[in-house]
Amino acid sequence: MTTSIQSEQEKLVDGFGRQVTYVRMSVTDRCDFRCVYCMGEEMTFLPREKVLTLEEMSLVAEAFAQLGVNKIRLTGGEPLVRRNVMELIEHIGDLPQITDFAMTSNGSQLGRMAEDLKAAGLKRLNISLDSLDVERFRQLTRKGDLTQVIAGIDAAVAVGFKGIKLNAVILKGRNDDEILDLLEFAIERGIDISYIEEMPLGEISEHEREETYCSSDEVREVIAQRYELVPTTEKTDGPSRYFRIPGLKTKVGFISPHSHNFCGTCNRVRVTAEGRLLLCLGNEHSVDLRAIIRANPGEIEPVKQAIRESMSIKPERHHFTTDGDVQVVRFMNMTGG
Ligand code: SAM
Ligand code: SF4
Q1: What residues have CB less than 8 Å from 136, skipping those under 6 apart?
Q2: Which is the closest atom of ligand 2 to the Cα of 38?
Q3: What CATH number does domain 22-335 carry, 2.60.120.290, 1.10.3210.10, 3.40.50.880, 3.20.20.70?
């Protein structure tokens, strides 16, 4: 009797019947930028011994792959500023179960790394871009160099990934006048774009989140003045809702944690740079994988068992609000956005 690999494959199913197939792993909490919605100006980063080593991260990725996960996204912090990160990328790129291997990056290092990333098996890239104005880009990222980021985006486009998507966080009064310019930048390059509502992660002092809140519906109205947006049912396993513009390659996505709750179809978990398995972006339910790995060095089974058991504490939904209440004290760079 032949049993298909599919039916032998163990699955991770939570208490609400949702199968977890997607893991976002934060490679580092560090970053070469300090985006105003993501970090404070002065940040204290984790001491090195608290961060999982690249070998430990590889073990976690492999454990998830053996439990039915087929998509891994590396994020951070800025994943490409971690020393020797290519070793981890090559390891994950070699895992046969991981058919969708993606990364979220600020683009600053892509000029020199895009080719190697493709060769290592990375399939898709999300690149953050909130402004096309050099000075404003500098203000929003506090450190970023727009020219370098655009060169990075163009290098990635030239290498030819399966998918490239821009991520733009829209803040009222800061960059909401660039909604169409950013879209046209994506259209010119034949790549996708998602507009993101700012999330209340971490206490920030630079602006009042309730004043800068810009809903996806408002962004969509601005775009609809110039382009026809046709809803699609296409999903990329993420929380975006997608629209097509007739005749164009570019898809337009909206990530709307406030205005459209996407928890019902949640298929993902996160692992922080220090090895905390977070069951929900908006809740503190977590499991300390680092403690398990360091108590059983190099052993995959205890990690798999902890992941299996974690399914019972995955919460049903998050409870973000737009009134400025911070329910989650982690910063996005800690969480792995
Ligand atoms: N450094 C990489 C980058 O910027 O793409 C990856 C990590 S970053 C935390 C991942 C994504 O989260 C970025 O697109 C960023 O714009 C977004 N982000 C950060 N803080 C956010 C917040 N408070 N609300 C919404 N999106 C946020
Ligand atoms: Fe760094 Fe990304 Fe956070 Fe900006 S959004 S500070 S690039 S981690």
Answers
A1: 174, 175
A2: 3
A3: 3.20.20.70
Pick the residue whose CA is nearest to atom 12 on ligand 1.
337
* Residue-wise burial string across 131-142, b where 16 or more C-beta atoms lie within 10 A, e elsewhere: beeeebbeebbe
How does pLDDT run across 216-232, given as a tens digit for each residue?
999 999 999 999 999 99
List the residue whose alpha carbon is closest to atom 8 of ligand 2. Answer: 77
Kind and range of the H or E element at 127?
strand 124-128
The pTM assigned to this predicted structure is 0.91
Q: In this predicted model, what pLDDT tens digit does every residue of 101-143 receive, in sequence order? A: 999 999 999 999 999 999 999 999 999 999 999 999 999 999 9
Which residues are near ligand 1 (CB < 6 Å)? 31, 37-38, 75-76, 78, 104-106, 128, 167, 169, 196, 198-199, 201, 332-333, 337
Q: Which two tokens stand for residue 258?
A: 């406030």
